[in-house]
Amino acid sequence: MNAGELLERAVERLEASTAIDHWQKDRELIEAEDLLAHALDVDEFDEDDDVPERVRKRFDAMIERRADGEPVQLIKGYAEFRGMRLVVKPGVFIPRDSSEFLAEQAIRRLRRRRSPVHVDIATGGGPVALAVAHEVPRARSFGTDIAKDAIALGRRNAKALGVSNVTFTVGDLFGGLPADLRGTVDVVTLHPPYVAKNELGELPEEIRRFEPEHVLTDHSADGLGLLGRTTVGAREWLRPDGWLLIEVSPDRARAVATVMRRAGYVDVRSTLDTEFKVTRVLVGRWYP
Question: Which of 5, 87, 190, 259 is 20 to 30 Å from 147 at the Cα level?
Answer without folding.
Answer: 259
